[in-house]
From TrEMBL:
Its cofactor is Mg(2+). Its EC number is 3.1.3.75. GO terms for biological process: bone mineralization involved in bone maturation; regulation of bone mineralization. The gene is Phospho1. Substrate binds at residues 18, 98. The keyword Cell inner membrane does not apply. The lineage of its organism: Eukaryota, Metazoa, Chordata, Craniata, Vertebrata. It is found in: Extracellular vesicle. Coiled coil: none annotated. Keywords: Hydrolase, Magnesium, Metal-binding, Mineral balance. It is an enzyme of class 3 (hydrolase). Belongs to the HAD-like hydrolase superfamily. PHOSPHO family. InterPro entries: HAD-like_sf, HAD_hydro_PyrdxlP_Pase-like, HAD_sf, Pase_PHOSPHO-typ. This is Phosphoethanolamine/phosphocholine phosphatase. GO terms for molecular function: metal ion binding; phosphatase activity.
């Protein structure tokens, strides 16, 4: 039994969904005074302001839903998901994303693959009485490398511990991601595990840098991908062994 962990933005989907929803804003753009409030490491707070602005502009649930449903999957992701659908009894699949629950559900249901995931970890989101789209932080943590609202390493470590208590032990962990916040959990992977960073994205670059500075410190096998079909082929080979 294998655990397969996915990220969403620029991994499953070929865009950053937080940027995508700006398409629902008037003129498909944000005013400068909102954009200037962005601070590194506090993206979740920034998005709360973006959503409040969009609510003020009359952007409704249906408008957001339409945008999320139309965000394209990354190259080869359809192949990978079809492969996983055929072999779903061999993989336990979870999603850890710094996007939001509503957007993820809209996108994956539209693509037809929401049911593949045993669990989705993301920032809580809902629509308030005014019909405004609201967003919260996922949790708090002490990791210095991650944004204030989410450390994926903490989520993955806790999930593995919880499954171990339920007497589920995984032979190997596979992690598919792209960002710096995907690098953090991938550092905890063992030599039996595989990290699939999207080629040329921060997770890939950071793993390469770590390997240069401290050879052997990054333990997982590194398999970069441009098309997720490459991930499917790799997993296919694993199943043959």
């Amino acid at each position: 039994r294998y655990l397969l962990v996915f990220d969403l933005d620029e991994t499953i989907i070929n865009e950053n969904s937080d940027d995508s929803i700006v398409r629902a804003a008037p003129g498909q753009a944000l005013p400068e005074h909102i954009r200037q409030t962005f601070r590194e490491g506090f993206y979740n707070e920034y998005m709360q302001r973006v959503l409040a602005y969009m609510g003020d502009q009359g952007v409704k649930m249906g408008d957001f839903k339409t945008v999320y449903e139309n965000i394209p999957l990354s190259p080869g992701m359809l192949d990978l998901f079809q492969f996983l659908s055929k072999n779903h009894e061999l993989f336990e699949i979870i999603l850890i994303s710094d996007a939001n629950m509503f957007g993820i559900e809209c996108n994956l249901r539209a693509a037809g693959f929401y049911s593949l995931f045993r669990k989705v970890f993301s920032n809580p989101s809902s629509f308030d009485k005014r019909g405004y789209f609201t967003l919260g932080p996922y949790h708090s943590h002490k990791c210095l490398d991650c944004p204030a609202n989410m450390c994926k390493r903490k989520i993955l470590t806790e999930y593995l511990a919880e499954r171990a208590q339920e007497e589920v032990e995984f032979e190997r962990v596979f992690y598919v991601g792209d960002g710096a916040n995907d690098f953090c959990p991938s550092v905890t992977l063992t030599a039996a595990d595989v990290a699939f960073p999207r080629k040329g994205y921060p997770m890939h670059r950071m793993a390469q840098e770590m390997e240069k500075k401290q050879p052997g410190a990054f333990q997982a096998t590194l398999v970069p991908w441009e098309s997720a079909a490459e991930v499917a082929r790799y997993l296919q080979e694993v199943l043959k062994k």
